[in-house]
Amino acid sequence: MSRIELAPTASGCHLLVELHNRDHLAAAYGETFARAALAALQWRMHLAGHSIKQAGDRRFVAWIAEAGSFAEHWQLQLAGLPLEHLGQRALPVVTVGEVRLSSSSGPYPPQELERLGGRAPILEPVQCGWIWRERYEKDMALALAFHEALRSGEVGLSFQPIMRRNAGDRRDASLYQEALLRLDQPGIGASGLVAAMERLGLVRLLDRVVLDAVIERLEREPTLHAGCNLSSHSLVDDAWWHGPLTRLQEQPTVAARLTLEITETAPLGDFESAKTFVGRLRALGCQIAIDDFGEGHTRLDFVRQILPQVVKISGTLLAEAMRSITGAREFSHLVALGGSIAPYVVAEGVERASDTAVALAGGVNCLQGLAIARPAGAWPPSRVCLPPVCRSAA
């Protein structure tokens, strides 16, 4: 492909748009679909009056003539556009960011163009054979069903308290309330949805819409302390997060009542980028929690460096502690490790009174589970929706 001429200018900007799941779409739905997917993204920006320059089979550059930052607008609008071609549908894994330009005007080889800030989403590699393709299509069907549920207002939040309690004190006090996805559409389970979105590289869309809803709830209720999950794949300081982080910066009292639970069900992508992003959240005043400590892909070096206020011990480990002396010993050791890192250590999955006794004997100072408090809906209901720019594009 020929080189691209991009001159630095005083006004306007060049946006680099990348379709990261292009090869996945080609493998699952055919090469024609993959080409049509990129063309659909280009056409949407072209219709808005922006000039387009092709930069390979999965990237293009759009010139935005107006002053100001449009990266978030187009990040959300393109990511919120299901792609359709010859009866097949899929969601794109897209990043949008300003092009990093050198002092010269180029011309630039397309493969050397880079975005300012941010990292590419982590996707599982394309594999040969029908087994991979079948799972990819099932994951995408689940993601599309979730997208439709968001668009039609069928996704909400329930809140489950995390209670502070010491072994010698029977009085409870809420640390914060965790926001949990509540899906009105049958066939969509929260845990399966998160796993599918992580495999597809779409989990930032899920995390963004939940975070927006939690911030809105905190703005409405000035005494509420609430938390929500952030996948390790979402710990990237890019256009996805400009809106929520700006709201938190403008409202420090809201940020101070927000706890972000980092889940490492998927491997951490870029260690330094993730650490920097968490540092930015802390600087805004947010509390940081580590979810499911002791399971998944938890990296102790990462946990130690980000200095969380809360460590949540996986409910699976509490269940093991209930079954055997060895499990109880391992649970206590993990609680002690968590307590050396954070002031609050939570036992998750406390379902019965006997779980409570074992958890407190293991040394935790906070409890979460059905035996402590059931998830409850809020009034008025907290709805999780696509951002307005996505709804207008859908």
Structure description:
This protein has 394 residues and is of the alpha/beta class. It folds into 2 domains: 13-116, Alpha-Beta Plaits, CATH 3.30.70; 139-393, EAL domain (TIM Barrel, Alpha-Beta Barrel). 40% of the residues lie in helices and 20% in strands. The chain contains 14 helices and 15 strands. It has helices at 22-29, 31-47, 71-79, 130-151, 190-200, 203-220, 242-250, 252-255, 271-283, 300-306, 315-323, 325-341, 353-361, 388-393, and strands at 13-19, 51-54, 59-64, 83-85, 88-90, 94-98, 155-164, 173-183, 226-231, 258-263, 287-293, 310-313, 344-347, 366-367, 376-377. It has an 8-stranded mixed beta barrel with strand order 7-8-9-10-11-12-13-14, surrounded by 6 helices. A 4-stranded antiparallel beta sheet has the order 2-3-1-6, with helices on one face. The chain has a two-stranded antiparallel ribbon with strand order 4-5. Strand 2 (51-54) and strand 3 (59-64) form a beta hairpin. Helix 4 (130-151) crosses helix 5 (190-200), helix 11 packs antiparallel against helix 12 and helix 11 crosses helix 13. It is globular, with a radius of gyration of 22 Å.
Number of alpha- plus pi-helical segments: 14
The third-level CATH topology of the largest domain is: TIM Barrel
Average pLDDT, all residues: 89
CATH class of the largest domain: Alpha Beta
Weakly predicted, low-confidence segments: none
Question: Numbering strands along the chain, what is their spatial order in the largest sheet?
Answer: 7-8-9-10-11-12-13-14
Question: Biggest β-sheet: count, sense, barrel?
Answer: 8 strands, mixed, barrel
| Shape designation | globular
Structural class: alpha/beta
Binned strand content:
15-25%
Number of domains: 2
Q: Roughly what percent helix?
A: 40-55%
Rounded to an integer, what's the Rg over CA atoms? Answer: 22 Å
Order of helices and strands: EHHEEHEEEHEEHHEHHEHEHEHHEHEEH
The name of the CATH architecture of the largest domain is: Alpha-Beta Barrel
The number of strands is: 15
CATH superfamily of the largest domain, please?
A: EAL domain
